[in-house]
Amino acid sequence: MRSSSRTTQTDRAARRRVAGGAATAVLGLTMALGAGGAAPAAAAGSADLSGVILGVGADETQRIVTWYSAADTPQQLQVAPTATLVDGRFPADAATFAATGGANIASSGGYNRHATITGLKENVAYSYRVGGEGAWSPTYTFKTRDFEGDYDFLFLGDPQIGSSGDAQKDGAGWADTLKVATEANPDAELLVSGGDHVESANDENQWKSFLAPDQLRQVPLAATIGNHDVGGKSYEQHHFTPNTDKSDAYYDSNAATRSGGDYWFIHKDVLFIDINSNAQSDTKDAQHVGYITDVIKKHGSEAKWKVLVYHHSIYSPASHSLDQGNKDRRKDFTTAFSDLGIDMVLQGHDHSYSRSYAIKNGQKANPEEQPGQAEVYPGPGGVIYVTANSASGSKYYDLKKPDGTGTGVQGNGPDPLNKDNFWFNSVENQEHVRSYVRVKVRSDKLVLENLRSGTCATPNPSVDNGSVPCANSGDKPVGSVVDKVTVHPYQGDGQSLQVNVPNAAPGEFGWTIDGYNGLVDLGTAKEKNGDHFEAAGKINPLLVTDSRRTLAPWSISADVSEFKDAGKKFSGSYLGWKPYVLDAGAGATAANAVASGYDDQGAGLSVSRGLASAEQGHPRGGARLGADLDLKIPDSVEKGSYRATLTITALSS
Length: 653
Hints:
Layout: E1 4-5, H1 9-15, E2 17-19, H2 22-34, E3 49-56, E4 63-69, E5 76-81, E6 95-98, E7 100-103, E8 111-117, E9 125-132, E10 135-136, E11 140-143, E12 151-156, H3 167-184, E13 190-193, H4 204-211, E14 221-222, H5 234-238, E15 263-267, E16 270-274, H6 282-299, E17 305-312, H7 324-340, E18 344-348, E19 353-356, E20 359-360, E21 363-364, E22 375-376, E23 384-387, E24 414-415, E25 418-422, E26 425-429, E27 435-442, E28 445-452, H8 461-464, E29 481-487, E30 508-513, E31 526-528, E32 532-538, E33 542-546, E34 554-560, E35 563-565, E36 568-570, E37 575-583, E38 589-590, H9 597-600, E39 609-614, E40 621-634, E41 645-652
Parallel strand pairs: 1-41, 12-13, 13-14, 16-17, 17-18, 18-23, 22-29
Antiparallel strand pairs: 2-30, 3-4, 4-8, 5-6, 5-9, 7-8, 9-10, 9-11, 12-27, 15-16, 19-23, 19-26, 20-21, 24-25, 27-28, 28-29, 30-33, 31-32, 32-40, 33-40, 34-39, 34-41, 35-36, 37-40, 38-39
């Protein structure tokens, strides 16, 4: 009588090697499919939910979703890894987050809601929806990336939907820029706005056009409040931002009827601080500086880069460069920003593009820096100020000529190196075409590029309606570069050292046969006591290895099939064994012996029995396992040469 130890080809692939966590994932999926509590991805009543937008959270593990509801009902946000949805249905164990909010202002109607998703994992595609049973929104998706390392974000200037006089055309230009930008940069992790999302603060038709593009539900937006957004509550109703201070200091007037607030968040190696520059006076500017100082004092050490965002550009090249308020902001802000180590300031408002020289304490940091210089070393206190042009094409402002006010902090005199530009700007551009700014965040530099998202062709609303002529020549297509600069940080007088530490390999748990997996021959059974036969042998030793950092528990078990010889057979319950550890390691402990079913009328190895296991926290390494086989069968079994299969299974959490 003979016994063999083998697995099928399918079993060999599925059972011999188990990556850390893989078994848990499979078990979890099976449980989810069998739970019977899944819900459809959309249900009746979803038309009552609108304006869904995905916003940034406090860090890369969070997102904030905001939406409008026609009904004042308890609502929630539901999210799950996209891979766990089956036929569009969310699993029963999908995470849910309670929504909060309140009544909208009368001109908006309905109610606003928001919920914060927490506990996101890196490199996972997620699906989410908002509402509640019987009234779910459609399902939307987003994907997280690595939580450490390099990444890109996109900065978008003044869509100002409705500014051209045709909100639909402005919305088309805005939608096209988002389409162009995200298709060209599919891995961009954030959208950052420069403010002025709409022309009229409480015009919900304009907000509807602004919110229409699907990208605003797929890539998180860091919203910035502009002077056209501030005059009502719709901005706050549509954008709930993290870590927001809504003290009176950060509102330009009545907080009950206007929007405002300063906020901050961290995304990987960048600390973003976003302020409401509409709240402006010598006193309020000082309060903004106090807010920025406090955030940097508490959180500046958590990031390599500090990026400040607000609407009113203080070094823009067009009409608003002459505004006294912006000149006052230069006086109030620039020395503080240099002292605080701000690396870059992103601004809007002037519907034109500019990139400043490195500015320190309100003056050009390096008199030798050249116009359009492609590699910039700002030095201690040097700050780069950027103004984004219109992302929708709804309005453009023509460049202004320098005047005789000189090169002081509030002066708008000419650049000695380029008489056509203001003294503070390295690059100025106005072609009357849509564009956006891509910022590449790298460990040792920031790479900033202003890229065309349109040409003279429609949709370009301000050109289409004849407000301005297009100044873009045919050799400057969509995606071409207006400006590019690499900003190198100041490293101090010493030599800075850096090392990138990747995620540690999770390791692997698995088993294999030690040597050749030959037939385990139990020989010829011998008759005992005139009533049964006995045979014995040893399994081919198994090598178990576990290099996982989690030190998770594991177990090896086996079960045997029936013994067969053509049409003859007998039960595998007659086979028992005594496991042992041949070479110790990986925390291996031998399982208890299992008697032949002939001795105790039990199931023997016909059901799964343990060979060895290890507990949580065991040392990494390997072990060699063996077992003595004990076969006892009644003498009623017919003569023959019988074979069976011993199936070995590895389990680990």
